[in-house]
Design goal:
The chain is α/β, with parallel strands linked by helices and 241 residues long. Helices cover 41% and strands 16% of the residues. It has a single domain (4-232), classed as Rossmann fold. Strands 1-2-7 form a three-stranded parallel beta sheet, sandwiched between helices.
Length: 241
Amino acid sequence: MDDPLSSNDVNVTGTLQLLIACRDAKVRRVVYASSSSVYGDDPTLPKVEGLRPCPISPYAATKLMGEYYCQIYTRLYGVEAVSLRYFNVFGPRQSPESKYAAVVPRFLAAAMRDEPLEIHGDGHQSRDFTFIENVVAANVLAMRVPQAAGKVFNVACGSRCSVLDVATAIGKSLRRSVRLEHQPARAGDVRDTQADISQARAILGYEPRVDFEEGMRRTCEYFVAHFADGKATGGQVAQGT
């Protein structure tokens, strides 16, 4: 929101440069990391790939433009590009350090420091939280399935949980009470997301392997083992999506 020009340079120009390089090197297939944010604030649930995109943030607009370039390079230049619209990915190794960090690692770090969990809005906004193992499986399938070229797929679980549900799950996993601190809603945030994953099932053979509860359990276990007072202990922790 603060620097849309840099977002465009990285996400749009960067994607285009990659596609040009892949065309010139005769790379057969590219899997592009898109985002559920391209749907914007359309209230229709669940989100199907055929919905008219309606981005409401610079980030979402850049992700949609990347999809369009992927489709153009598939049609005109023979680069088999597949776009995957990720829905709120979480899991082990996701960094809580950035101010743009995803809600799960940020909440976990705060809870382990016994700090209040900062919630923007009323906390009833919901997301289709998707464990990283599901996303990896979708990427592998997108690389291999011939019929996927030039298409767009939702990658999620097909269900949704509220931000308050995340806070509750963290408290349960850590076996401690968590404090909540409500802040004003953020500009550019959508109220609810939930994916229709029938197209990914039908064409990719995708099936989410890990549901929200199991994913939260694994993620909390990782944070307990690798973080002390909400900070990484030893080694590098990768930034999540």
